[in-house]
Amino acid sequence: MSLHPSLAAVRHAVRRGLADLEPGARLVVACSGGADSLALASATVHEGREQSWYVVGATVDHGLQDGSADHAERVVGQLAALGVDETVSARATVEAPGLGPEAAARAARYALLDEIRERFEAEAVLLGHTRDDQAESVLLGLARGSGGRSISGMRRRFEHYRRPLLEVAHVDTVTACQVEGLVVWDDPHNLDPAFTRARVRRRVLPMLEDELGPGVTESLARTADQLRGDMDLLDGYAERALAEAAVSDGLSVEVLHTLEGPIRTRVLRAAAVAAGAPAGETFYQHVLAVDALVTDWHGQKWVDLPGRLRARRADGVLRFEHADDTA
After folding, report:
1. Which ranges constitute the DSSP H helices of the chain?
2. Residue 253's pLDDT is what?
3. 116 vs 104: which has the higher pLDDT
4. d(Cα 155, Cα 157) in Å, to the nearest integer?
5. First CA to last CA across the chain, in angstroms?
6. Which of 12, 33, 49, 295 has its C-alpha lying 20 to 30 A from 95's C-alpha?
7. Domain housing 312
8. In 69-80, which positions are buried (b, 16+ CB within 10 angstroms) versus exposed (e)?
9. Is 110 found in the same domain as 36?
10. What CATH number should be reported for the domain holding residue 300?
11. Is pLDDT larger for residue 13 or for residue 61?
12. What burial letters (b/e) apply to 232-259, b meaning 16+ CB within 10 Å?
């Protein structure tokens, strides 16, 4: 009996995305109960049998919706039924001053997933983002004018995280779950127009498909692939430049002056994020304002940044300080 194409697509993506892992590897699959993460969990269990992977199914309860604890319990039951080796459920505390609700929830979720990975000594944490999520990220990056790194979308791998399904369409994960008889949870936040991503998913992308023809989602995701190598190269140059500019309490303005603009702005953004500015809320206009402290200095007092951070120039040094410490 032939395998359904959607189920085959999901399993093939997982097989290819985890091909470098050794037999017996320990993995954490983050699962919300939605189609993408359920399909990922199922495929990881299936592909892991031959490799004797130890698969931990993890769900994070953000506590932001009524009945969230009951839902987390149901997801744990689904993961156990799929055949994961172990399940874990954790309750996140979503409190991050200076961050929006989506960014705060994301920060809390990753913090918990980091703890879970360390607890189980896992090689990787798998996330269920699909090609549709990638297209949304590219479109949002274009709309915000936040530069090539944003337009290059989500990375397939970063730190201990992997996204094996970035080339798989959301419709395939939904169909794969239907084929396997998995009951999928539709997160109300994904339908709530108060959230920007929900509006992009429900209104903007369908409108673009209608007006420009089918294939917009694939084209946006392909744009991310084409840009990512260039961004990685430039970021590598910037990382070395950041190390050269670093002094004991900030960055040397003299060294920053010697850098080409595209490298210098990357250095400044990286330094701001390292100091506590939320990456998802630090936009190009913020970086340009900080850059002016280097290239157009005329005694500016400071530049306010997201995360209650300030950039200040004094005595030839550019410093990033918390606003509470500089008041």
Report:
1. 5-17, 35-51, 68-82, 101-120, 131-144, 148-151, 170-180, 196-199, 205-212, 216-245, 253-257, 261-275, 284-295, 323-326
2. 96
3. 116
4. 5
5. 70
6. 33
7. 248-326
8. eebbeebbebbe
9. yes
10. 3.30.465
11. 13
12. eebbeebeebbeebeeeebbebebbeeb
Alpha-carbon separation of residue 277 from 177, 251, 272, 323 (angstroms): 38, 16, 6, 11
Instruction: Look up the CATH number of the domain holding residue 121.
Output: 3.40.50.620
**Whole-structure pTM over 0.85, yes or no?**
no
Give the pLDDT confidence score for residue 63 in this predicted structure. Answer: 58
Question: What is the per-residue pLDDT across 235-268, written as a single tens digit (0 to 9) for each?
Answer: 899 999 999 999 989 999 999 999 999 999 999 9
List of residues 6+ apart from 267 with CB closer than 8 A: 238, 241, 242, 245, 251, 256, 259
Q: What is the DSSP letter of 203?
A: I
* pLDDT tens figures, 112-153: 899 999 999 999 999 999 999 999 999 988 887 767 777 888
Neighbour-count burial for 189-210, b at 16+ CB within 10 Å, e otherwise:
beeeeebebbebbeebbeebee
| pLDDT over 90 at 327, yes or no | no
Shared-domain flag, residues 275 and 186: no
Q: Give how many domains the chain has, as a whole number.
A: 2
**Beta-bridge partners for 161:** 125, 158
Residue 174 and residue 273 in one domain: no
Structure tokens at 150: 């944003």
Q: Classify residue 127: in a domain, yes or no.
A: yes
What DSSP character marks residue 195?
S
Residue 53: inside a domain, yes or no? yes
Do 176 and 265 sit in the same domain of this protein?
Answer: no
26 found inside a domain: yes
